[in-house]
Amino acid sequence: MDVRALQTLRAVRTQGGVTGAAAVLHLTPSAVSQQLAGLTRDAGVPLTERVGRGLRLTAAGDALADAALDVAVALERARSACAEFAGSPTGTVRVSAFQSAARLLLPGLLTRVAARGGIAVECADEDVAQDAFPALADRHDVVVAHRPAEGPAGWGDGVRVVPLLREPMDVAVPVDSPLAARAALAPADLDGAGWIAVREGFPVARVLDDIGVRAGTVPRVVQRINDFHVVEALVAAGHGIALLPRYSCGGHPGVRLVPLAGVRAGRQVDALVRPDVAERRVVGVVLDELVALAAELRRA
Amino acid sequence: MDVRALQTLRAVRTQGGVTGAAAVLHLTPSAVSQQLAGLTRDAGVPLTERVGRGLRLTAAGDALADAALDVAVALERARSACAEFAGSPTGTVRVSAFQSAARLLLPGLLTRVAARGGIAVECADEDVAQDAFPALADRHDVVVAHRPAEGPAGWGDGVRVVPLLREPMDVAVPVDSPLAARAALAPADLDGAGWIAVREGFPVARVLDDIGVRAGTVPRVVQRINDFHVVEALVAAGHGIALLPRYSCGGHPGVRLVPLAGVRAGRQVDALVRPDVAERRVVGVVLDELVALAAELRRA
DNA sequence: CCTGTCGATGTAGCGTCGCTTCATGGACGT
DNA sequence: ACGTCCATGAAGCGACGCTACATCGACAGG
């Protein structure tokens, strides 16, 4: 039972296919397919089944992929077992964050980690649909992701979740709007307004829907924009109002953020780490700095 | 970090050297040495150090060997994860037992396992010094071992221990001896007697010493014989008395077993299994049958 | 003190295994 | 029906790990 093939199986599951797995593993699809064939051979049962032009894991394959994760954890523990004796942790950690969190967290993280010395942090900004965040954990060691604060965590069980921040969502209105004078806004106050939302399937898209449900109406979405800076510019120009996170949006002069009243609306920012890479000491250090930084920001 | 090399490191520890490990792994010493070199290279710290003409694991090597065991367990769990889907357990299990336990347990075990079908049991009888029992777990799946019943288990932490039987040790005396008429014998009754003991370092050798300590004298050992049948023949011929396990010694007509009074003396029979092989379903089945058989014998 | 043995470790050579490249075969959308 | 996408085979090549053999140091005996 080849260990590399086991990890490949895991990647096939998270990436949803041979081609995707091949990409994150830096292999050709053919190699992945061959590994799967070999694994199936000495498993004795089919691990994958074709569905359309892609494929999917069978129940046995799913169980084996779960076990593969434990194998990876044990292996990484072995690595760090002798890293204990090798001195202070060293290496490079790849961190990915969605745009606004990257702006909020990465600068501070880099200085904090640099202060300890010996650890390199490779940053990347990747913002994807909510379902796709866990898959990023194959390409990066730490993935900063976000989701509606209310409701369950919802990041499958292939990743370890480290909560970082809970950020309220405020209503962004033009400064010259009558709404801007209010201290707080109830859902009823917003009835009939034109909303600038994020693209379907992306995090916090559902938050707006929830507000609509509580108000008894369907929010009228006039635009779908993911970049908050663009949203601010549109709001300032009077093209609609929007839900924006309170802290990670640098105040556009033409926009005012007004708290919501009557409903809890927020987004939760989490760090996602694959259990095996969580065993690496360096990753643990970076993660510690990240939560410490988040705590500091929460106090400010 | 190569998995095979990790298991090799484990074997080097249990077998006490490169040559021994090579033997149980069916490799040449050179291959083992090369694996160790490679492992040391990507561990970054020395894992072994020379001592005399042999070698010993360093602290880092010891920690890594511990971790290697967890890796093996995780891997075996992966194997059995899809074996769940492959139907009823099948395969061959290698069982080793010391002489008297083999006589007592193996016949019943074979019939019990044969009744289930699909599982082959390869038997072997190996009786070694007490310290050497755990090392046998590299060559066999299940090792039936024995030790003084009083005192701690004492089988290192590289094996899982499954208790099977506790067997009292009786005093074997010639039937024509005046001692044979007694219902029980206290240590004081045996003062000055000539003992036939087992070889130094072998299990239950210390039981006799314990009795001496309680009686305040040092037992006078006249012979050291490991095979209980030979011991019985010598006792019957009047060459000394001996401590023999009550159940697993078929009564020699010239020998009578008299219980000890005043001291608890017994041997504990355990099954030793390496944690990773314990994950194999077949091994679990055989082990279950073994404890069931032992329970049945205990009742009889 | 020298010698023989034992155990670990290097070196040369060979087999095997897994990867890439290229080609094939279904499945879906236009 | 055609082109595209995705998984999978076949051929070839490179790398890795093994065996066989030689070497070196450590211990025991003459």
From TrEMBL, chains A, B:
State the InterPro entries in the record: LysR_HTH_N, LysR_subst-bd, WH-like_DNA-bd_sf, WH_DNA-bd_sf
Q: Does the keyword Transcription regulation apply?
A: yes
Q: Organism source for this protein? A: Klenkia terrae
Q: Name one Pfam family in it.
A: HTH_1
Q: Which family does it belong to?
A: Belongs to the LysR transcriptional regulatory family.
Q: Which residues form the HTH lysR-type domain?
A: 1-58
- Please give the PANTHER family that the UniProt record associates with this protein: LYSR SUBSTRATE-BINDING, TRANSCRIPTIONAL DUAL REGULATOR HCAR-RELATED
Protein name, as recorded: LysR family transcriptional regulator
Which terms are listed as keywords in the entry?
DNA-binding, Transcription, Transcription regulation
Q: What SUPFAM superfamilies does the record tag this protein with?
A: Periplasmic binding protein-like II (SSF53850), Winged helix' DNA-binding domain (SSF46785)
Gene3D superfamilies membership: Periplasmic binding protein-like II, Winged helix-like DNA-binding domain superfamily/Winged helix DNA-binding domain
Instruction: Tell me where on the tree of life, at the top rank, the source sits.
Output: Bacteria
